[in-house]
Specification:
- The chain is an all-beta fold and 107 residues long.
- The protein is built from no helices and eight strands.
- It is globular, with a radius of gyration of 14 Å.
């Protein structure tokens, strides 16, 4: 697997992590279910990927934005051999100056 870019930033008033990855030569067995203690936002650019969250499957499409709340078990499944590209941001919701989560449905 080839990851072209990885960077990380820690915000002054909390945690914010940024990651951009382009993965080639997919190994379908490396992705395992996991959860975060922060909100994960994925901007999906390309590839043939399914996203699983709490047992539900979602087929990702080009330029799709996915928000996963803390403590939700999630995973991806590689459905093809083409390159997979995505941007990832992890945000500690306690570091936000307002409660954005009241505007986003729980499901």
């Amino acid at each position: 697997m080839d990851i072209n870019i990885f960077s990380e930033y820690e915000a002054e008033n909390g945690r914010l992590f940024y990651n951009h990855a382009v993965k080639k030569d997919q190994n379908k067995d490396i992705y395992k279910p996991y959860f975060n203690d922060m909100t994960e936002i994925i901007f999906f650019k390309s590839g043939n990927i399914s996203y699983f969250i709490d047992g539900k499957r979602y087929k990702l499409k080009k330029d799709m934005l996915v928000l996963t709340r803390p403590a939700y078990i999630h995973d991806i499944e590689v459905d093809g051999d083409e390159e997979y590209e995505r941007y990832n941001i992890l945000i500690d919701e306690k570091s936000l100056p307002f409660d954005i989560y009241t505007k986003i449905p729980n499901d």
